């Protein structure tokens, strides 16, 4: 990355005042998603029993009341040497496409939708960039408090791009008490990760500052069969070189109560990364690096609108930098991508019968690329309305919603109808159906992005989808740590038209193409058991079937590439705080890497184990060890390169707390478990009164 860009990012971050930060849209251009949504300050955790306590206004259940939502609490995974993708991989309906170790590209596939059909947000700020995809490697786990994963069409609530779902990454929140913490990890391939954080009262509010950095050489040995079709062909020992990466950044958050009970939240986030480009097994590279940078700013106001109900106003701005160096096609150009937008939302309950939510949003984006002097801009605007109808005393809820949006030259209409029924005895039923779209971005249409080529012939994607599920949850109002059980079984189906997917364009490039049509259907199972306060277990299974309906006989009826049919994850954690152990098993079946089904990646079974001990208090000292891929199973990325084998890591964490005078903890509706299905049936009997003045959860923000 050019030093001028680095200096610009640092200057912008330094000038961003927590009390004055504002997300201003640039003069021309457009966005692909929403403004930020803040979350709660850490506080004593309590269990909220849906159906008796109204969900906070910004909770995922409120923003999509019938959606298939899983919430993953990253705080439950403290001390584990896991990156963001590894924390997400346990969610049902979701697969991670990994291209290496630390710092290498990682993206999501949700319910068969390609990575460019899954919206990813950082506190509501859209992260989808090059090719419409979001790279999870640029969001270190140190920033994360929890993930909110919505599976299924998200167009009605979150806008263009949400064919398969949406993921909001909630960052760590500032707290009212003085607290300093830090963590350092060292492990295989000279991997070193670390962060320091401080939070506490500041300027009549609360602030958090977190700084992180990491590096890894990443090189490891593997065996290569150059002629796999020939029986008995000898294998050769090779070294996966150019798997190194390094990066760092900072997160600044500030929140403050305003007169009248409203609240202001501000965010500034900086990320820089430099990673090597290895090429492919058949065409390895001896040089070439990809330099990435991101500056994200956000501001949000939320509060009461009196008799009109509740409201919020959001603004965001994000600027990305991309530069490919070395002797690679497309190297030498420094690309800059800017996105900004605003959103206004209001929600008004009408007695116990229904509550109406209306959102109006607009955004813009532009890109400049020095190579070839390419420039383009994009504009979008949308209006969304959602009603929550409560029938039979709240036991039945019907939720129609619709979004109308203009994206560049495209008009898009995304309706959805959802329903839920509380069946009693802890059982609930939910179902959804609708239509979602993804317009190709101008980057995909016209701009070359490093090793990604454009295709001006692309058409907008469309998805017709439906899903249904039955859930059971132990129905008891219990204190934190008591016995809890839950299970969910559901199915889904979708038809994609003009599906956009990237394919390798030898030797090192990739280009997007439209599939004429594709079908996707599958089953999702989730379960969790916490029989004792010191023992928990969770599992998820996904069966996914995809079928290319493109008329070309070479592709017709074939599975879509990069969609494994089976994925199962099981996890057990046992022990008290002073010494606990954990194990996790991930099985993922084989998957094709092209439309003809002539080449595939083998299945993988990965076993990880670890242990943690908080052996000292005041300050708190925690020592953790982690062994990934214990059986040294060999897995491969989409280029055919092997992924890392067995790896070991040691993590030391320290935290110092000091209660600030006059400060108070604010109550919050904490997650009852690290991963749970937020089926609406759980709170189908929720009264339509506005919740008491409690801090709202940060949730998936609407897409402008």
UniProtKB/TrEMBL annotation:
| UniProt feature, compositional bias: Basic and acidic residues | 659-668
Under what name is this protein listed?
TonB-dependent receptor
User: One Pfam family for this entry, by name?
Assistant: Plug
The record places domain TonB-dependent receptor plug at: 63-166
Q: Which residues form the TonB-dependent receptor-like beta-barrel domain?
A: 334-630
Domain of life of the native organism = Bacteria
CDD domains per record: ligand_gated_channel (cd01347)
